[in-house]
Every structure is written in structure tokens, then in C-alpha cells.
Amino acid sequence: MHIRPASSADAPAIWSILEPTIRVGETYTLDRNLSQAVAIAYWMGADKEVFVAEEAGAILGTYYIRPNQAGGGRHVCNCLYETKVQAIATRLVDKWGSAKAQTRAQAVARRCAGTRAKIACDIAMSVRDCNRLDIYYH
Question: Would you give the end-to-end CA distance of the chain in angstroms?
Fold first, then answer.
């Protein structure tokens, strides 16, 4: 599995992952009737760094990370992720919990809060609803 920055070419695959969750309306505070264009504009907005996880050319999941606040609150970031439903979530969490994923998160933390950033991850997840990773650092 390879985790890489997302590109606009990934938008259809990202939408195929996001749409079922958006339509159910239990995970994100988004309108259930959101169009593909609006959903992708939200997910891949300029305020976020967006990544995809792929294997054998197939995108299995996506996540974004962004600062929660400006100024003095920018040391707190949010990372939301979504995966394909068919038993892939567990594998992606295992991968995203790995040292490689931690290194990526630390790089973003340094970008958000400067080189003195220290990171600790609090992962809230379940097998069915594996969608949120909050990263706090000082």
C-alpha cells in the first residue's frame, strides 16, 4: 500500500469513497444531498493537505489534514479519513497507525506549527466507522 498526496485526477475515486458516507449523514456534518463537485471542493479545499492510499492502482482510502484554528490555535490540527467499506478500513488503520504514517503526520505538524512541533495521536475508530484521526501537538 502506498500513501501519496492526492491530485485532481483522484477526484472520481475519492467521490466513490465519500459519497456513501455523505448520503447516510451519520459521520460528517455535511448536507446529505451534496453534489460531487461541492463535496470534492470541500474535501480537497486549499486549506487542507489531501492524501490517498492506493494499492495495485486502486484508491482504497483518503484523508485530509488541516489546522483547526488560525494564530495561537494553529497548533491543533484535524485529520479526517474515509475508506472503502469492504473490510479495508481495518487494514488502512493498521497502515495509518504505522511509523510511516506517523512520520507524514509529523511533517504536516511541523508545517502547521513550526519545527519545534511535538506530536501525539489520539485515534478514535471502530471497524464500521473508521473515519477520524485528531492530531494535537505543541
Answer: 30
pLDDT at 58: 86
Other CB atoms within a 10 A radius of the CB of residue 138 amount to 11
User: Among 120, 53, 57, 123, which Cα is nearest to 91's?
Assistant: 53
Number of folded domains that form the chain: 1
What is the span of the domain harbouring residue 16? 2-137
How do 76-83 and 58-67 pair as beta strands? antiparallel
Average pLDDT of each block of 10 consecutive residues along the chain (138 residues)? 91 94 85 95 92 86 83 75 61 56 57 41 31 38
pLDDT of residue 42: 94
CATH for 48: 3.40.630.30
* Complete edge-to-edge strand list for the sheet that includes strand 119-124: 2-5, 49-55, 58-67, 76-83, 132-137, 119-124
